[in-house]
Amino acid sequence: MRTATILITVLLLGAPAWIAAQAAPPATGAPEVFNATANAKNASGAMSGTLEVRVSRYTPDFDRKTVEEALRLGGYPRFVTTLRNAPEVGQLVLGGGQPYAIRYARVKVEAGNRTIVVVTDRPVFFVSGGRAADTKPRAGYEVAVVDIRLDGTGQGRGTMAAAARVRPDGDGGVLLDDYAEQPITLTNVVRQPMVAAPPASAPSR
Asked: For residue 195, what are the CA distances in angstroms to 32, 161, 182?
């Protein structure tokens, strides 16, 4: 009887830890990668491709506030200049093509859900004209903005304005203001931790 009582006590004491381990949410935070399917439409029809957003770190407070203050006090033109002088904090890759530098990345967490906003320092893709590298940039639309919404499991949806303008969001952040083409819908968004590259092996002698 005493043995059974001890066993039950041990099981009860261990249960909270086991339940907590089972209920613990997945780890979040940079460095991390978001993979998604990008769906776009134009006059010729619909197209889709892969999108990868690599966030090596979220913009540090000092740099973030510098960029946000430039937008609030100097408007979009000053924002673009300040953004391009900010440190790179990640990369955006569309369809396996060339990477575009992310120079602003901010995350907000509410009730277990995450909202990630990243801004590149130049346009990424024009739906009607092909890749930005192959298309004449449109005056006033000099950045790309990606907005990702994730639930507690690290899955979600989002949008990308590939050639855009931004404005202050009223909470100190950056919000999409206008775009040159219809925003691209992001589906099947999945968050993954970023795997660090293995260290280079020493040269053989």
From this structure: 8, 27, 33
Helices (H), 34-151: 61-84
Which residues, in sequence order, are CB contacts of 179 under 8 Å at separation 6+?
Answer: 141, 161, 162, 163, 164, 165
- Spatial neighbors of 157 by CB under 8 A, at least 6 apart, are 148, 149, 185, 186, 187, 189
Q: How many CB atoms lie within 10 A of CB 189?
A: 21
pLDDT digits (tens, 9 = 90+) for 80-103: 999 999 999 999 998 888 899 999
Helix (H) or strand (E) holding 155: strand 155-168
Per the CB < 8 A criterion, the answer to whether 43 and 128 are in contact is yes
Residue 198 confidence (pLDDT) above 50: no
Residues 6+ apart with CB under 8 A from 37: 48, 49, 50, 51, 186, 187, 188
The pTM for the full model equals: 0.78
Q: Which ranges of the chain would DSSP assign to H, the alpha helix?
A: 2-23, 61-84
The separation between the first and the last C-alpha atoms of the chain, rounded to the nearest angstrom, is: 70
